[in-house]
Write a structure and sequence with these properties.
By secondary structure, the chain is α/β, with parallel strands linked by helices. It contains six helices and five strands, in the order H-H-H-E-H-E-H-E-H-E-E. InterPro entries: HAD-like_hydrolase, HAD-like_sf, HAD_sf. Keywords: Hydrolase, Magnesium, Metal-binding.
């Protein structure tokens, strides 16, 4: 909600009406009440992987919102560690791996963003799998045909099981 309000101020040169700010708050509150919808295969895949690997959530965004989403998803017990980052750049992943005492060559990131989930992990020597989603923020889109020995393109999360 804060980002929406900041954007309203910025694009209106701080001349927007209080009514518009209130509408942004109303929309934000509606979004906070939306139920979490898990993608097909997520729970079964996590069940297959739990106990065989240290599973980690590495996400970015608002701390409280991401914590709420994870709690409401019912998935938090599958994970060894949860990392909510303000950004997902090489340095952020290096800090995470140091905290986990994990070498990059032993790290595999699954994500829907080439820019935030794949490229920085490949840069530090890890592996990454891209699982496209039909909705991706415009600032996360990356239209490059990526070829890298540590990269794979998946159609769904459960496809990772045949690679591990």
């Amino acid at each position: 909600m804060l980002c929406m309000i900041e954007t309203i101020g910025r694009v209106s040169n701080n001349t927007a009406s209080l009514e518009l700010v209130n509408k942004a708050i109303e929309l934000g509150q509606e979004l906070l009440q939306k139920p979490i919808e898990l993608l097909d295969g997520v729970t079964k895949t996590l069940e297959s992987l739990k106990g065989k690997y240290r599973l980690v959530v590495a996400t970015k965004g608002d701390l409280l919102d991401q914590e709420r989403k994870l709690k409401n998803s019912g998935l938090q017990d599958y994970f060894h560690h949860i990392e909510i980052m303000s950004d997902k750049k090489e340095n952020d992943y290096q800090k995470l791996l140091k905290h986990l005492d994990c070498q990059p060559k032993n790290f595999l990131m699954l994500g829907n963003s080439i820019k935030s989930d794949v490229l920085p992990v490949l840069e530090i020597g890890g592996s990454a799998a891209h699982i496209p989603y039909h909705i991706t923020w415009s600032h996360e889109q990356h239209d490059v045909n990526l070829e890298h020995e540590n990269f794979m393109e998946l159609k769904a999360i459960n496809e990772i099981l045949s690679f591990l």
